[in-house]
Specification:
There is one protein chain. By secondary structure, the chain is α/β, with parallel strands linked by helices. It folds into 2 domains: 7-248, Peroxisomal Thiolase, Chain A, domain 1 (3-Layer(aba) Sandwich), CATH 3.40.47; 260-409, Thiolase/Chalcone synthase (Peroxisomal Thiolase, Chain A, domain 1, 3-Layer(aba) Sandwich). It is 35% helix and 19% strand. The strands form 3 sheets. It has an 11-stranded mixed β-sheet, with helices on both faces. The mean pLDDT is 97.
C-alpha cells in the first residue's frame, strides 16, 4: 500500500471552555479570554481545588434528541457535537465509501460522570437501581462508536486512550490510516468530561492540580508561580481526508498534517523522564516527517500544563529536538492558560489552534504569563496574541504513563 498519501484537514468542530463553536473559540483564544472559573458542576466545599475550566452554555439537544441525551455521557455528547460541526463544515458526508471512512476519537477517562452516578445508586439503593445503560455510557470507545453510527463509518472505529495525549494520538493514528491506504477519510479528535468529584479529588491528592482560588493566577504555564494544572473539559474534532480525494471534490482545506511522532518515556507512571527524552524524540520524528528546515519559522503549541516539572522538562525537550538556536527562535505558547487542561480533548483542541494560527498568522497567547521561569527560557508569547506568519506549527501532548505525541502542520502547497 502507498505510504505517500498526503493528509489534509477539511472540517473542524469544538466544544470548549472558551467557546462552543470554532469561530467563538478562536476569537476568544486570540483575545486571551480566560475560561477558568469556580466549579459549578458539584459542591467544592470540602475540596482543596475550587476552580475548573467548564464548558458553559452547551445544550446537547442541539445535536441529538432528548432520549439520546439521556443515554449518553457528557463526554460523548461533547464528542458528537464537535464531530457534527466538523462534518457539516467539511461536506464530506456522502463522498466517501462507508468502508473507507473511519473514526478515531480519543478520551483519557471516558464516562466518569456516569460511573460516579451509577456507583452511587449501587451503594445507596442496591444493584437493581443501576441503569442497564451504565456500561455503554461509561466505556471509552463509545464516542467513536456513536460518531461512526451517525455517519455510517464502517472502517476502523476506535478510541485512543493515552491519558493527556489521547486526542493527539487519535489524530496521528488517523493520519497513518489514510497515509498507508486503509481509509480515505477519518473523523478524529478527543473528548473529556472529568470535572467530577472523584477526578478532582484524585488529581488534587497527587498534588497535580492548582489550588489557587484566583482564576487569573491558577493556570500559569512557564511562570515561576505555577503550582499545578486546572482541569478542563470539552471536545475537538477534525475531518481528515486524503489530499487528492479532498481536491477532487473541491473541498476547502485548513492545512496539511505533515508529521507525527509517538513515543513512550518508559520511565514513570506520572513523571516525565528528567531529560525529556521521549517528548524530544516524538518532536524529532514529527519534524523529520514534516521535512523541517532549521531556517523555517515555527510555532509550538506546548503541552504547557503549568505543573513545575512538566514545563521545565518540555522546555528541555524542545531544545533537544530542535537544537538550542532554532528552539529559541520558535514562538511558543500554551492555550491551556485559557482552556485549562482538557485531558483527552487537549491534543485535539490544541491541534485546531495550530491550524488556525497557520491560517490567520496569529499566535494565541499564554495569558497571565507575568514572571517567566528561567527554567522555561524559550520565546514564549505572553498575555496577548501576536501576529506572525509561520511555516510550520507543532502541537505537543504528553500523558501519564510516559505517552508523548507531537503533530506537525503546514499550509497546503500544491
Amino acid at each position: 500500500m502507498s505510504e505517500n498519501r498526503r493528509v489534509v484537514v477539511t472540517g473542524l468542530g469544538a466544544v470548549t471552555p472558551v467557546g462552543n463553536t470554532i469561530p467563538e473559540m478562536w476569537d476568544n483564544m486570540k483575545a486571551g479570554k480566560n475560561g477558568i472559573g469556580p466549579i459549578t458542576l458539584f459542591d467544592t466545599e470540602k475540596f482543596k481545588a475550587k476552580l475548573a475550566a467548564e464548558v458553559r452554555g452547551f445544550d446537547p439537544r442541539q445535536y441529538m434528541d432528548v432520549n439520546e441525551t439521556l443515554r449518553t455521557d457528557r463526554y460523548a455528547q461533547f464528542a458528537v457535537a464537535a464531530a457534527q460541526q466538523a462534518m457539516e463544515e467539511s461536506g464530506a458526508a456522502g463522498t466517501v465509501a462507508p468502508e473507507r471512512f473511519a473514526v478515531l476519537f480519543g478520551t483519557g477517562i471516558g464516562g466518569i460522570g456516569t460511573f460516579e452516578r451509577e456507583y452511587g445508586k449501587l451503594l445507596d439503593k442496591g444493584s437493581r437501581r443501576v441503569s442497564p445503560l451504565f456500561i455503554p455510557m461509561m466505556i471509552a470507545n463509545m464516542a467513536a462508536g456513536m460518531i461512526a453510527i451517525r455517519y455510517d463509518c464502517r472502517g476502523p472505529a476506535m478510541p485512543a486512550v493515552t491519558a493527556c495525549a489521547s486526542g493527539a494520538n487519535a489524530i496521528g493514528e488517523a493520519v497513518r490510516l489514510i497515509r498507508h491506504g486503509y481509509a480515505d477519510a477519518v473523523i478524529t479528535g478527543g473528548a473529556e468530561a472529568a470535572v467530577s468529584p472523584s477526578a478532582v479529588a484524585g488529581f488534587v491528592n497527587m498534588q497535580a492540580l492548582s489550588v489557587s482560588e484566583d482564576p487569573q493566577a491558577a493556570s500559569l504555564p512557564f511562570d515561576r508561580r505555577r503550582g499545578g494544572f486546572v482541569i478542563g473539559e470539552g471536545a475537538g474534532a477534525l475531518v481528515l481526508e486524503e489530499y487528492e480525494h479532498a481536491r477532487a471534490r473541491g473541498a476547502s482545506v485548513y492545512g496539511e498534517i505533515c508529521g507525527y511522532g509517538s513515543t513512550c518515556d518508559a520511565w514513570h507512571i506520572t513523571a516525565p523522564h528528567p531529560d525529556g527524552r521521549g517528548g524530544a524524540q516524538a518532536m524529532s520524528d514529527a519534524l523529520r516527517e514534516a521535512g523541517w528546515d532549521a531556517g523555517e519559522r515555527v510555532y509550538v503549541n506546548a503541552h504547557g500544563t503549568g505543573t513545575p516539572l512538566n514545563d521545565a522538562v518540555e522546555t528541555a525537550a524542545i531544545k533537544k529536538a530542535m537544537g538550542e538556536e532554532a528552539a529559541r527562535r520558535a514562538l511558543v505558547s500554551s492555550t491551556k492558560s485559557m482552556t485549562g487542561h482538557m485531558l483527552g480533548a487537549a491534543g485535539a483542541v490544541e491541534a485546531i489552534a495550530c491550524l488556525l494560527a497557520l491560517r490567520d498568522g496569529v499566535i494565541p497567547p499564554t495569558i497571565n504569563l507575568c514572571e517567566q521561569d528561567e527554567a522555561c527560557d524559550l520565546n514564549c508569547v505572553p498575555r496577548e496574541a501576536v501576529r506572525a506568519d509561520v511555516d510550520l506549527a507543532l502541537s505537543n501532548s504528553l500523558g501519564f504513563g510516559g505517552h508523548n505525541a507531537c503533530l506537525a502542520f503546514r499550509k497546503v502547497c500544491v
